[in-house]
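cache lookup: miss for this entity combination. No prior model stored, computing from scratch. Input as submitted by user K.M.:
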Amino acid sequence: MSSMSDQPTTAVDLAKNVRNGVAKAVDVVDEYLARIDERDGEINAFNLVLADQARERAAEIDAMISVGRDPGPLAGVPVALKDNLCTRGIPTTCSSKILADWKPPYDATVVTRLRDAGAIFVGKTNLDEFAMGSSTENSAFGPTKNPHDTTRVPGGSSGGSAAAVAANFAAVSFGSDTGGSIRQPAALCGVVGVKPTYGAVSRLGLIAFGSSLDQIGPFAHTVRDAAVALETISGHDPGDSTSIQQGPLDLSDTLDLGVAGLRVGRITDLPKGASPDVEERLEAAFDALREAGAEIVDVEMPAFNYGLTAYYLIAPAEASSNLARFDGVRFGMRTAAPDTNSMYTATRTDGFGAEVKRRIMLGTYALSAGYYDAYYGRAQKVRRLIANDFAAAYAKADVLLTPASPTVAFKLGDKASDPLAMYLCDTYTIPSNLTGDPGMSVPFGTGEHGLPVGVQILAPALKDHVMFQAAATLERHMQNLQDQNVSAS
Amino acid sequence: MGDSLGRVPDVPKISAADVSKVATLARLSLTDDELTTATAELAAMLDHFADIDALDLDGVEPMMQPTPLANVMREDIEGETLDRDEVLSQAPLTEDGRFRVPPIIGIQD
Amino acid sequence: MSITYVNDDGYCPSNEQHARWEHEGYELVVGLEVHVELATRTKLFSSSPNRFGDEPNTNIDPVTLGLPGALPVLNRQAVELAIRLGLALNCTVQKSTFARKNYFYPDMPKAYQISQYDEPINIDGWLDLPDGFRVGIERGHLEEDTGKSTHVGGAGGRIHGSDYSLIDFNRAGVPLVEIVSRPDIRHPEQAKAYVTELRGILVAVGASDAKMEEGSMRVDANVSVRKPGADFNTRCEIKNVNSVRSLGRAIEYEAQRQVMLHEAGEPVVQQTRHWDENDGRTHTLRSKEDADDYRYFLEPDLVVVDPGTEWIEAVRAALPVLPAERRAGLAAITGLAANSEAIMVVTERGHDSFVMDVAKHGGSPEIALKHLQQSPEAAGVPAEDVAKLTTMEASGGLTATQAKQVLADMVAAGGGDAETIAADKGFEAMDNSELESMVDAAIAAQPGAWEKFCAGEGKAMGALVGSVMKASKGQADGKAVTALLNAKKS
């Protein structure tokens, strides 16, 4: 575990060094690729490592520097992309058999923005198939292991991206969060993970799961790295009709303002289910913020409890429609059959995994004639109730603090045969997907078996910078503790 | 049978016939065993999700999207199209520049 | 789109005065669903060209192909045209949302079509047929078109018995407006008139070229029959009608088919039927046990469209004069009925403004109308030239036959002076006094015929007119001669 406890070089520092000419991008990339080579066989964070392309791009970056051109704020930074982000000419599989060899003819907007910022893509990371899951065990290409303990899951669905940063295979990685798929694995892997305000980051080129819920966001070792990464990819995209009508988020400028006078909400009727070690870390986080000058206020959010139900009727419904295009006609896998209808059925039955099929059927049912009102229709009303609760809470508090994951990383196989138990992993993260508000997980110490614990900060829509401020404070607190421990030993 | 709303306790919220219908709509085929399992799983889930049945949702406006945006439109100006060869190279089967599929029978109009 | 049938016979009371189709005591109930391709440069949700006839799969992009990760972005011009045609059809233009209609078909790239369901952009309009019959319009909504499939190996390129199919997505994503009428139509001729008038309106406002034969306007008919005054019966949807004439034939056939079923006590099964132009019948492709469950839900990738008063009123103010108003204008200055054949034909050709111009130049609009109906090429001649011609005709200086010949010369030359051409052709302008002396001479030469004519024998006039024509070598205007004889008689 020695590579885990070394302070990894931050993306901010890496970029600075490359831009100054102090470091060569090719050397940086070689270092990261070596680590991937050494350990990814064990971790399985990547569906595809892009060694040649990364070296080529690194050489380009160095060439740009040498002629005085600035490649951008992420110059030379090794970046990993969740394999549901379209990369032109490079396989994008969603960890599904049905897309096993598909090479998109276009890049996702975030991919273009990252490339234009000088980032170097080292690989496409593993995920739960079509982003449906909380452990990355639903991947058609085998699970990813948690770098802190390879008998345990990294979380999901962006488990590969979380593990990639945790294992220093990449300085920054990107995932997608529909019900917690960035924040929960971030918590389990001990890294920072952010789901921004809905619409802050373009969804163009993100293979859709739940269209009114999905957002792309960064994983990083530090809050500042996550801030810079998010700034790079955020801002209006005319190609996404739901994207915010403003430029990139501004997060770095206010990062170190601290939390003096900030009102931090404690949800008194939060759903139970968090393990004692997680509860303890959450309390410590409240203490840390209080010490730093924040005011802790109690809020009640009775509808929070219904988040899981609303989500598991809405998300599968949208997914059932989004995944209908996988029919073997224009791209991806096709299973031959004597007529088109049979071809659809054979292809989809062969190509989709069990969890995906389960959610497609659940979602189809929730939308079907006679059941729309009872299920999908009702769930959207519950969504409104939850949004009302959040609005009321944000009248009293600037941010809210909750656990990110109810437990530390669980063992591989523990919940795989109990879908409902798996769904509970997202209890605390789901509601903010429903409302479109931002949320982020920040590492805050360890729990059982010395495994990482993350705390979740939630903020109102477009107040991502406030969320980051609180996160930075918590991070500073942990850093101070670590420094004290080091100097004490 | 049942209470004033016709609800009978312990009747599963989804039957094998329902699941079968839904699978057909979604173009998925299930073996008999899979159908049994899926029915049990989906019924258990829907039972769990019944917590919202008791909520009073009269007059609550559904929230379909988290965004307050309106009137997002683009100008009627031609943009780049995809390279046909690149696209067709990723297709399972093509002929004469078009996507080829087996006979289209047995599908709704 | 399934129409909610409103059995509201009282929709437009004056409709009662119009003829209804009737067969064996049953009357016809028809509602029409018309899909119209909008004349935009690019597609509804992406910026690929909206163009017909290009190489297959060249006007494509991730949205058109339904590729993973693609997102739709609405075309403003499509909304503008939808508002325009909505206002032209007297609709209320309202805030609208998009919905997904989910079903599998190879030419449907996303396996869902983005359409409008709960809140369409246009509602509650109407279209008046030229004879005054009013057909209500329930709604008009935007939706995207599908790709096109070609079937290989079967007879006549049909699906049945084909070996495989080939899909071209050039047409996928082209903007459509679906216009759904109330089931107010009671006669196949009304259905035909509706489609014709609708086309005229769509072309006039520039929304579409609306050509049934080319597929830029597609008409489906919902047909049922009932005993007069009774509730509506089950209807069938008739598709694959490719011309106005076929529409009439298909409705007629289908209505009779259903009457026979009702008479035999057999149920009419609600289904989609295809019109076969060759055998003149409707057929089911297959029996449809369950109607497809489209699982409509609000499209999460698009946001609400709320044009607002300013935009709507700007479109309304810029609307051109519609065919009905143009016909009314012609009716007013010619004295003919607005739905007379001459006015219908000339307006449909767009030559109504020419007739108005002729009137402005002092010509006879009635005579100009007749010429334009018979010789549409005349519209290429300067209006003042035609005006002069019609004046000469009106005053009796030229017979109708002569005028036609002069006009033909004008058309060939692209214009000209009517007097000069007439003179060149030897059509002398016969003034009234010359004519009168010829008439007097004829009377004098045939006193017997004159007596009979004065006694009321109209036939006797023929001889008198004949001799005037002979004397004038055919130059006399028969009408003027008759008028003079009648005047002298009294």
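stored under new cache key. Chain A has two domains: 2-302+387-488, 304-381.
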